[in-house]
Design brief:
With 244 residues, this protein is mostly helical. The chain has helices at residues 2-14, 18-44, 70-82, 103-130, 138-169, 178-196, 214-226; strands spanning 56-61, 87-90, 96-101. 39% of the residues are buried.
Length: 244
């Protein structure tokens, strides 16, 4: 599954046609969702589980302490995670996240993030280089651009996930037990998260001091609409850091 997703990411990266890139991206998310559903159904019929078939916790490094804008990177990761049945706890300084989920879902989330975070930074740098954000301070424009980018990506991936789930649970074509398996998967992940998580409080991507720029938000949203998924050579276990 990961090899097929990586191939779709490379195809999306290799095309200059925005519609083709969108199609490849949606296909990657639908494939990830369909595979996750198949594995959930298979687990529901398994009398015993291996470690690879149980929810896990993985630490994903986001960036170095003191780096600016880390919350926007966390928001991007969290948006991708939400579309792939992965829960997140965030460090107080946003330098890393704890990802909770089934191994295949965490792998997919990290693969998508590794591709999209670089694209987010590059598109933001290109926007700032035009000077269109002035007189808004550069850091304010960057934060707003990247927040809007992450939000748009999250909506696109969630739409593709929902489409895949609808197709998998149609009464005439659904495999027996699919709906129940998905329900049980959700409950198992919820129980795992409650048991393992030590998070306190609620994490937010924005703060009152961050400032607001409608122009940067619109630009970030447009970039998120156009974003294509690039190649992700490091899939399981990779640790993506803040691009410099």
């Amino acid at each position: 599954m990961l090899a097929r997703i990586a191939a779709l990411l490379r195809q999306a990266e290799g095309t200059d046609n925005a519609h083709e890139a969108e199609a490849f991206m949606a296909a990657a998310q639908r494939l990830a969702t369909a595979t996750s559903i198949d594995l959930a159904v298979a687990r529901s019929h398994s009398a015993s589980r291996t470690t690879a078939q149980q929810p896990t916790q993985r630490t994903i490094t986001i960036g170095e302490p003191g780096s600016r804008g880390l919350r926007t990177y966390v928001q991007l990761f969290a948006a991708i995670a939400d579309a792939n049945d992965v829960r997140c706890d965030v460090a107080s300084n946003s330098t890393y996240v704890y990802a909770y989920g089934f191994p295949e879902d965490v792998d997919t989330t990290h693969a998508l993030y590794a591709s999209l975070v670089v694209q987010m930074v590059r598109s933001c740098d290109a926007y700032l280089a035009t000077g269109a954000h002035k007189p808004t301070p550069t850091i304010t424009a960057r934060l707003n651009f990247q927040l809007a980018f992450g939000s748009r990506i999250g909506r696109r991936l969630s739409d593709a996930r929902d489409e895949a789930k609808r197709a998998a649970t149609k009464k005439k074509t659904a495999r027996p037990g699919t709906a129940l398996a998905l329900r049980n998967k959700d409950l198992e992940l919820r129980d795992h998260y409650r048991r393992e998580s030590t998070a306190r409080g609620t994490w937010r991507a924005t703060s009152a001091s961050a400032g607001y720029s409608s122009a940067a938000r619109r630009a970030g949203d447009r970039a998120g609409r156009r974003a294509r998924l690039g190649s992700a050579p490091e899939l399981p276990g990779a640790r993506s850091r803040l691009p410099r």
